[in-house]
Design goal:
single chain; 468 residues; alpha+beta; six-stranded mixed β-sheet; 14 helices; 40% helix
């Protein structure tokens, strides 16, 4: 029995060893069956070759990845010559050319390759391979046909842009010209000329007319300078008029806005309205006493965001045109406050000011300036304080020979331009004692309770003016 078990174990061991050898031989055979094009790239005088591989462990989309790699490989075989009469050649000679343009042209070629065919595929446990071919003669014929169709499409857009221009549709005209540039962008490395009834005969003319059109935008210099005040709770938009050729309003056109000073925070995107008015929305202003400038740039990306123009075409266009930066300016100055304080004891003015110095101290800072003339102020703080005899004063006087007086303080903040009352407050329930009503009233002004209540009211009032 033991001998039988021993012989069975030997037999099983031999069987497993034999299966491993067979599996190894099958793997070697499978690897050996990989087509020649996987190990050695084919060379052809009549065909472009594109081979792409993707790692199967990288995810389920390995087939799409292999195809993308194969087409990029195919496009890299297609020589991209830069014609001496092309727009890219001109930019290159102006030392503004960089490797990104080459990459963009290659990517454009990848997107526009037609007529290729799948020759073979191969895969093993780890990799997936694709092999494409493209007939060189067929490619040139298709390319020429597509170029002619593209030029025709661009020319139609250019012609329509002149119709828009004749109808004073500035935005529509510019958009069509940029669309035409996007259509022609795959041929920026080639000489492109076309017959036209207008002044645009090639890509040079097109880029020049786009530049001139954008440079025709101007900003109207206002006779009155807008004023910004620091730390306001809200700001009214700064409004500027935008014109075309200093005549017609620029309607529904997007701009980017940059503040030249970090102390001014603004919304960096805006659009002109139907009247050509451009609003700059201010978010925060820190104390300054100077003119501040904003840089306005036509926002080509926003303008073309809903049109079929590739991002790469917009990037290229920006390299070929120069747009003059428009400047808008405003002035930042402190908030001017006038303090109007009437302090009375039993309805008679008290010449010895007690509340006003406290108020002045609370508004002493670089963001606020206290002025002595009401007409120069932005806001008026109005204080009306008065003391009166309390109802229980006679009983206290008869019993203890002490007079009792109470004080009432009305506090308000008014916009001196609109006369709008922004804040109202009333302080009461504050008393003063003395051997006379005059002394009792004076002591009411001196109480710590009044100072605490006044400080609370001034804090709330200041919050209506300043938000840090």
């Amino acid at each position: 029995m033991k001998a039988y078990i021993k012989n069975t174990g030997i037999l099983l061991s031999f069987l497993f060893s034999f299966m491993n050898v067979c599996y190894s031989q099958q793997t070697v055979i499978a690897e050996a069956l990989a087509p020649n094009w996987v190990n050695k790239r084919p060379v052809s005088n009549s065909k472009f070759v594109g081979i792409g591989m993707a790692d199967k462990t990288g995810g389920s989309n390995y087939q799409s990845e292999a195809k993308k790699n194969a087409l990029f490989d195919l496009s890299s075989e297609i020589k991209v010559d830069i014609s001496t009469n092309s727009i890219l050649y001109t930019v290159q000679n102006n030392n503004q050319f960089n490797e990104n343009f080459n990459s963009l042209i290659k990517l454009t070629n990848t997107d526009n390759i037609e007529g290729y065919r799948l020759v073979d595929t191969y895969e093993n446990e780890k990799q997936y391979w694709l092999y494409y071919e493209l007939d060189k003669v067929e490619y040139e014929n298709l390319k020429l046909k597509k170029k002619q169709q593209t030029i025709a499409k661009a020319l139609n857009l250019i012609n329509l842009s002149f119709d828009d221009e004749a109808n004073n549709n500035f935005t529509g005209s510019l958009k069509k010209r940029i669309q035409a540039f996007g259509v022609l962008s795959p041929y920026l490395n080639e000489e492109v000329n076309f017959e036209s009834s207008n002044s645009v005969k090639n890509i040079f003319d097109l880029s020049n007319i786009i530049q001139k059109q954008i440079q025709s935008i101007s900003i109207v210099t206002s006779k009155t300078v807008s004023v910004l005040k620091p730390y306001q709770p809200t700001y009214k938009p700064l409004v500027y008029k935008m014109l075309i050729k200093s005549k017609n309003p620029l309607v529904n056109f997007p701009f980017t806005v940059k503040s030249e000073i970090e102390s001014i925070k603004i919304s960096e995107n805006t659009v002109t309205n139907e009247n050509g008015d451009l609003e700059i929305n201010v978010k925060k202003v820190k104390p300054l006493n100077q003119e501040v400038y904003f840089t306005l740039n036509p926002d080509i990306d926003k303008l073309m965001s809903n049109d079929s123009v590739s991002r790469s075409s917009i990037v290229l266009l920006k390299q070929f045109i120069e747009t003059s930066q428009l400047k808008a300016f405003s002035r930042v100055r402190a908030i001017n406050i006038f303090i109007q304080c009437a302090e009375k004891i039993n309805s008679k003015l008290n010449e010895q000011k007690i509340l006003e110095p406290i108020i002045r101290t609370k508004f002493n800072g670089e963001e606020v300036k206290i002025v002595d003339q009401k007409e120069l102020s932005d806001f008026v703080i109005d204080v009306d304080a008065n003391t009166q005899k309390d109802i229980s004063s006679d009983i206290l006087n008869a019993t203890y020979n002490i007079q009792l007086s109470f004080i009432k303080v009305k506090l308000s903040l008014k916009d001196n331009v609109t006369q709008e009352v922004i804040y109202n407050s009333e302080i009461s329930d504050v008393y003063g004692y003395g051997n006379s009503q005059e002394t009792a009233g004076f002591n009411a002004y001196q109480t710590e309770k009044l100072k605490v209540k006044l400080n609370e009211a001034l804090f709330l009032l200041k919050r209506k003016l300043i938000v840090y």
